[in-house]
Design brief:
single chain, 346 residues, alpha+beta, Uridine Diphospho-n-acetylenolpyruvylglucosamine Reductase, domain 3, Alpha-Beta Plaits, 3 domains, 9-stranded antiparallel sheet, 6-stranded antiparallel sheet, 11 helices, 17 strands, 27% helix, binds flavin-adenine dinucleotide, FAD-bd_PCMH-like_sf, FAD, Oxid_FAD_bind_N
């Protein structure tokens, strides 16, 4: 099933009698996703409206992320967050996963740059925020609801985004000698100062990485001050700007499982002491990615966040979702997808 218009999409969903799995580029389904008949969104493409002067882009959900990047770059702009995705990612997949890279610490997540959505719910109704809204969904913040909903509440057909100017200059500082645990105080130090950091991370073989963006003179001055501030943590040198791309790209699928752990920065040292060397820390988002043998559940101390298996064996979440969150999710599911078309039973 590969609808080319929103009308066709609504028709397909209305007529569906068995579960559907909404698919963009198919670059990163989680374990347990994709079991229903694929509903391929990649024909629903195209920029509907782009007004660079008002920093607004409206785009159909199946449009490749790369096309969006190129369209904006031609006007010296970018999405007003850091979209992350593998080759083939669609902008709908980015929105549905709230995929947000290291700039999150400064610019916010995908959901913060999303200003409008159109989607088709499990009954085949077209819903959009702003104008006509179904009477039984009035009161929901539909944009926030759909960002990160992972195709469970509806099929996004069109998304409106805020855009931002491309930063003229980028500089990366690296502390190459630090392991993951030693990197945390250095990264926290950088984030806690007046340096307007737009990325703070750790990668094996690269050490701690801190990114500064902006006008050339400002970046130069902040880099000098930050270098001096970080010197007590270890050797500081100029890093490779291309490393930011590796930060999430090295989350490769393999025979092993990949776990994503979200925690408070203060809890990270205890968590890291229970794990093998991580494959990355995205410290602006307080994210730890770690590879574990297939099927292994990490033995973690009590902490305030959660750990989720995002690649490999069957789905797993630690600790299990709390009853209140589970109840809210069930209620939303019942409201937007009462027939269980998107991943439930029909
Ligand atoms: C660097 C990096 C960072 C990432 N960060 C995150 C993150 O913070 N959070 C996260 O969850 N994932 C994250 N991901 C994975 C992300 O899911 C994919 O990279 C990509 O953005 C998904 O695009 P896709 O078109 O391939 O979607 P797919 O892999 O096809 O689908 C992914 C999910 O989105 C749903 N979906 C796709 N299109 C639509 C649509 N039009 N309407 C409704 N639902 C739809 C699917 O049902 C599925 O649940 C990250 C990936 C990378 C490489």
């Amino acid at each position: 099933m590969r609808p080319e218009t929103e009308g066709q999409l609504a028709d397909l969903i209305r007529r569906a009698t068995a579960p559907l799995s909404i698919t963009g580029g198919g670059t990163r389904p989680w374990p347990g996703e994709g079991g229903g008949t694929p509903l391929d969104m990649t024909a629903l493409t195209g920029v509907t409206l782009y007004e660079p002067e008002s920093l607004t882009l409206v785009v159909r959900a199946g449009t490749p992320l790369e096309t969006v990047r190129q369209t904006l770059a031609a006007e010296g702009q970018m999405l007003a967050f850091e979209p992350v995705g593998r080759d083939g990612s669609t902008i709908g997949g980015v929105a549905a996963t709230n995929a947000s890279g290291p700039r999150r610490v400064q610019a916010g997540a995908a959901r913060d740059a999303m200003i409008g959505v159109r989607f088709v719910d499990g009954q085949g109704e077209v819903i959009r925020n702003g104008g006509r809204v179904m009477k039984n969904v009035t009161g929901y913040d539909l944009v926030k609801l759909m960002a990160g909903s992972r195709g469970r509440l509806g099929a996004l057909s069109e998304i409106s985004f805020r855009t931002a100017p491309l930063p003229p200059v980028t500089a990366t500082l690296a502390l190459p000698d630090l392991d993951a645990a030693a990197a945390i105080p250095a990264l926290s130090d950088a984030l806690g100062g007046p340096f307007d950091v737009s990325g703070a991370a750790w990668l094996p073989g690269q050490g701690a990485l801190i990114r500064l963006e902006g006008l050339a003179a400002s970046v130069k001055a902040r880099a000098a001050d930050l270098g001096a501030r970080l010197a007590p943590h270890g050797r500081v040198r100029q890093g490779d700007d291309a490393a930011w791309h590796l930060l999430h790209e090295n989350i490769q699928d393999s025979d092993a499982d990949i776990w994503r752990i979200t925690c408070r920065p203060s809890e990270a040292p205890a968590i890291l002491s229970h794990l093998p060397e991580p494959i990355s820390l995205d410290w602006g988002g307080a994210l730890i990615h770690v590879r574990l043998p297939a099927g292994q559940i990490p033995d973690l101390p009590r902490f305030s966040g959660h750990a989720r298996r995002i690649a490999g064996a069957a789905p797993a979440l630690r600790p299990a979702a709390d009853p209140l969150t589970a109840r809210l999710e069930q209620d939303l599911q019942a409201r937007f997808d009462p027939r269980g078309i998107f991943g439930g039973q029909v």
